[in-house]
Amino acid sequence: MKFRRAKREDVVDIVGMLANDELGQIREDFKNPLPDKYYSAFENIDQDHNQELIVVENDEKKIIGTMQLTFVPYLTYQGGVRAQIEAVRIREDQRGMGVGEKMFQWAINRAKERGAHLVQLTSDKKRPGALRFYEKLGFKASHEGMKLHL
């Protein structure tokens, strides 16, 4: 497997994975051609040095996974940096084969390289399998998250 920053031409594959679950089907607008708003979002992410949109390729150079890392500098922890892992998806035919575990190992190492002292993530409570997976990797449900949709 190869990990690399996403390119504009990867956006269709990424959005396809984001849309390929019960919640993603509601949230995403995956059609051909892909709406321009996805390409605008990609440009914003790609230009921000605290954002890393990552894709994972198999040996045949096919994209089989994606995730977004956000590095958040802040004043607490003496000017620390925390790494936020979001939008983790694995292509449907690759699930259950250890890809997710390798992705998280890579993401944790990347966070260390960037000087982060903490790695955090959020997961929808409607994804109990994902929550169990994250706990198996050593993540703890230490805080209660809240959202306000605008």
List the helices and strands and how they pair.
Elements: E1 2-5, H1 11-19, H2 22-27, H3 36-47, E2 51-57, E3 63-73, H4 76-79, E4 81-90, H5 99-113, E5 118-121, H6 128-136
Parallel strand pairs: 4-5
Antiparallel strand pairs: 1-2, 2-3, 3-4
Commentary on this structure:
There is one protein chain. This protein has 150 residues and is an alpha+beta fold. It has a single domain, classed as Gcn5-related N-acetyltransferase (GNAT) (Aminopeptidase, 3-Layer(aba) Sandwich). The chain is built from 6 helices and 5 strands; from the N terminus they run E-H-H-H-E-E-H-E-H-E-H. Strands 1-2-3-4-5 form a 5-stranded mixed sheet, with helices on both faces. Strand 2 and strand 3 form a beta hairpin. The radius of gyration is 16 Å and the shape is globular. The N and C termini lie far apart (38 Å).
Low-confidence stretches: none
Helix content: 25-40%
- Quickly count the domains: 1
What's the name of the CATH homologous superfamily?
Answer: Gcn5-related N-acetyltransferase (GNAT)
Shape: globular
Number of helices: 6
| CATH class categorisation | Alpha Beta
Report the CATH topology name: Aminopeptidase
